[in-house]
Specification:
The structure is a homodimer of 367-residue chains. Chain A is α/β, with parallel strands linked by helices and 367 residues long. Chain A folds into 2 domains: 122 residues, Enolase-like, N-terminal domain (Enolase-like, domain 1, 2-Layer Sandwich), CATH 3.30.390; 225 residues, Enolase-like C-terminal domain (TIM Barrel, Alpha-Beta Barrel), CATH 3.20.20. Chain A is built from 14 helices and 13 strands. In chain A, strands 4, 5, 6, 7, 8, 9, 10, 11, 12 and 13 form a 10-stranded mixed sheet that branches. In chain A, strands 1-2-3 form a 3-stranded antiparallel sheet. In chain A, helix 1 packs across helix 3. At the A-B interface, helix 1 and helix 9 of A face helix 1 and helix 9 of B.
């Protein structure tokens, strides 16, 4: 079965409220739905969430690179020639989100053509993921109220708290309020989205030492090379790298430089193929991972869950799979549900995702 | 004087012959001319050469990010608020060529408004640059013929030889033929554009040990983290990093990782503002630099010369300023000339560049 064409459909769906974090704010999901068509009639689907302030991609650049560059380079290849696909995609530097969506859409087509779920093809370790919910910037009491609501409605007991504000004490206060309100059994970790200097991060970690944080993610910019190393040396909790590790070579550099001690894997960033490389690298080096969220739609979250559930190292820790709860609508015909803090992996051929064509027609921006 | 608008004009000019190197081939310059308009009527100009296989940018992405994202972020800023401009540009990750063109166009406007040449504003070290010419892939005898022609027509005596082919012995043979034909007084160095594995690179360097190469550039991919370190440890000539160092943090990482011992500075990649940061970093760390060429037009080469001539460390070594010779036409009203192996820096306010509006009208692709 050969790739016969690649579609890149820009669409926009508003969030219920703007999501705020140190590297930016999003009010509307302006994404690109990628569809890989085959000569056998099977269509693989995935979602590309462009993040200019994280990877430099925009909706325009993703659409153009997928439709105008990757499409012509991949048409005619068999869907199982995944490593040929990867070689061709990798000739183009950067553009991680665009590449990831193409890769995952091809996996979806492979799964459909073989009649197997992608999660089983990837490893088939388990059929569900525990879910971690992200709490964005707001006054401390609102952050507590949101976490309590999410806990009560969805049974979620792991929270990623966005930090990186100035003054950092606003974040310390929010984390303390969350720990007090949610009690000792809830898991809390923090994500700075590069908002702090190393010295601010060191002070904040010091002041939060009694809050039993599980780990801290990307507190300072990746290019604070020596600052990050200094921070890791003194930190008593693991320091996870996220947006600084958009490809395996960057994972290697951050870990060998002593600038990180854990790795966030995002399928929206490295697809399935390269995420498996990153996972192999981390498992081989003895480094913990977390399944991260690129402010994904239900389509993206479903992909992340399929990958996370496929391997023991990714399934061990709660994955960030609930950002879609903040969207006013989504494209899946059969919506995801998080129950008892868990998201079940879609069974059935491929990724098991069916797009609601009426919704796509309503939200797409190219017609 | 405030920025009142930023124009991004896509245009295409064919090369005389396709340029071939390990990371790709270009037959037509599909660039974006960037014009920064001010409320004082002054217009600053620079050129953006997108390189999908080097930085992931395309003509579409550069045009969109400059016009749709950077423009709205910068309009209203004073042209001297360069560090505010840089902060805003840096919020968007990647897109180095787009950012560089905006930065250089603003410097052009600053120079014009102050009645001073940009090269003097940058440092004013000297008024000319020795020129190094790039010899692309071809059979060895054609590469020799091209180098001899360039030497005879322009007095150039420094050549950058593209290598990275498989088998690597084709490149060894070409370098040997060039050394034999051009004699011992000509300076030769090689650029692999990431085409070799570390083991191929090691063997090639071994076999070229008697050819008196000055240095070698980017023989293996940046993500061959340990392979590059191993290569540097055994190499008897400096190993320059080029496309692997698109921002200061990457320069730091490559140097501290022992993966490079010299740095190529390209104004088309880091503009003037960030190129000065890279230069300061290299001077502080005691590392040599070379002014590189992003297959620049005359507009781009003029910018590179203005920067290179401004500082002793960049002016010390011949800069790569002659790629424009391969273009069938250009946009400068008053063309550059290379005489006795040197390119004079444009005097007069700003960058001293005047666009031939008839030519721009002929080559632009947006009308």
């Amino acid at each position: 079965m050969k790739i016969s064409g690649i579609e890149a459909i820009p669409y926009a769906i508003p969030y219920r409220k703007p999501l705020r974090f140190a590297s930016g704010e999003v009010a509307t999901a302006e994404h690109v739905l990628v569809r890989v068509h085959t000569d056998g009639g099977i269509v693989g689907t995935a979602d590309a969430p462009p993040r200019p302030f994280t990877y430099g991609e925009t909706q325009v650049s993703v659409r153009s690179i997928v439709a105008d560059h990757f499409g012509p380079q991949l048409v005619g290849l068999g869907i199982l020639e995944r490593e040929v696909v990867r070689s061709r995609l990798e000739r183009t530097v950067g553009n991680p989100v665009a590449k990831a969506a193409v890769d995952m859409a091809i996996w979806d087509a492979i799964g459909q053509s073989l009649g197997v779920s992608v999660s089983e093809l990837l490893g088939g370790f388990t059929d569900r993921m525990r879910v971690s919910h992200m709490v964005g910037f707001a006054p401390a009491e609102e952050m507590v109220a949101e976490a309590e609501r999410i806990r009560d409605e969805h049974g979620i007991s792991t929270f990623k708290v966005k930090v990186g504000r100035k003054p950092y004490r606003d974040d310390v206060e929010a984390c303390r309020a969350l720990r007090v309100a949610l009690g000792p059994d809830v898991e809390l970790y923090v994500d700075g989205n590069r908002g702090w200097t190393p010295s601010e991060a060191a002070r904040a970690l010091q002041e939060m030492r009694d809050l039993d944080l599980t780990f801290a993610e990307e507190l300072c910019p990746a290019d604070d090379v020596l600052g990050r190393r200094w921070l890791v040396q003194q930190s008593t909790i693991p320091m996870f790298a996220d947006e600084s590790v958009s490809r395996p070579g960057e994972v290697t550099r951050e870990l060998l430089n002593g600038a990180a001690t854990g790795i966030s894997i995002k399928t929206s960033r490295t697809g399935f193929t390269t995420s498996q490389l990153v996972l192999g690298l981390c498992e081989g080096l003895g480094v913990e991972v977390v399944i991260g969220n690129q402010i994904d739609t239900q389509v993206g979250s479903l992909c992340a869950a399929a990958f996370g559930a496929a391997h023991p190292l990714t399934a061990r820790r709660a994955g960030e799979l609930s950002n879609y709860l903040d969207m006013t609508d989504d494209l899946l015909a059969d919506p995801l549900t998080i129950q008892d803090g868990e998201l079940a992996v879609r069974q059935g051929p491929g990724l098991g995702l069916v797009i609601d064509e009426d919704k796509l027609a309503r939200y797409r921006q190219d017609r």
